Amino acid sequence: MIRPVSTPWLVGAAAIAAAVTFFIMQGQVRSANERASLLQDSVTASERSLLGRTTYVRYLQEGKRQLSAQQKFLAATVSQPNAVTLVLDQSVLGFHSTGTIAIWYDVEFSFGYDLSPDRYDVKSGPAGIEVTVGKPRLVAAPAVTNLRHKVLSGGLLTDEKAAALKLYAEASKRAQARGEQLASDPAVMALCEKQLTTFLRNFLLKQPDVTIVPHIAVVYR
Q: Which of 64, 153, 218, 220 sits most deeply, having the most CB atoms within 10 A of its CB?
């Protein structure tokens, strides 16, 4: 004979089962909330990272303005020693005389770009930032310094002092011609590019929310 289960026992068992189910569900909800919070934090961090990688675009035009304003300070300086030897040949009334003189001097060249606002452009492209500009040029007259001379051999009729003064006067003209040649030298062009891109990169990295600045390339017209 089967005895009926008492109602209080059934009620108690149901209450225990409900409590267990409640705690299990509560744990699942808490776990789901934690996962959702972690996912949100991850999404937010990713958004911040992406923002930091692209925010530089906002400041490109201001960067261009700063380059134009600071162009005289962006010149690449190159110094070179020079030596010139001149053989003097003088004849007077059948008398012949020769002499040799040498001069030495240093020349400092300053190269840069024409960064007038309408002469170049700064923009963002698939490979990074592009600065489109004309090729480097002399931005100041070459500075000739430390002039000195020596008479290597003197002649009875030759005027070595006058010859030295003439060579001194011609030094600036020779330096100008040499500087125009050097402006297209690959090493000088690379130095000018480094001056420009370093300034622009440093400016952009100082702007709010910018964490990464991509590669900056100089493209010549």
A: 218
Q: Which residues contact 189 (CB under 8 A, 6 or more apart)?
A: 135, 136
In the numeric block, the tokens 């009334």 are attached to 93
Q: What does the pLDDT read at residue 165?
A: 84
CA angle 108/113/118 to nearest 5° reads: 150
Which residue type sits at 61? Q
Does this model's pTM top 0.70? My answer is no
pLDDT for residue 67: 95
Residue 204: closest CA among 122, 134, 142, 138? 122
How far apart (Å, rounded) are the C-alpha atoms in residues 87 and 98? 7
Task: Give the contacts of 49 (CB within 8 A, at least 6 positions apart).
Answer: 211
Q: What is the pLDDT of residue 219?
A: 96
**Cβ(148)–Cβ(94) under 8 Å?**
no
The helix (H) or strand (E) run that includes residue 218 is strand 216-220
**Cα–Cα distance for residue pair 35/221, rounded to 1 Å:** 54
Query: Can you tell me the distance from the alpha carbon of 123 to that of 1, in angstroms, rounded to the nearest whole number?
Result: 93
pLDDT of 215 above 50: yes
Would you state the torsion angle of the CA atoms of residues 46, 48, 54, 57, taken in this order, to the nearest 10 degrees? 170
What is the C-alpha radius of gyration for the chain, rounded to an integer number of angstroms? 39
| CA 67/CA 72 separation, integer angstroms | 9
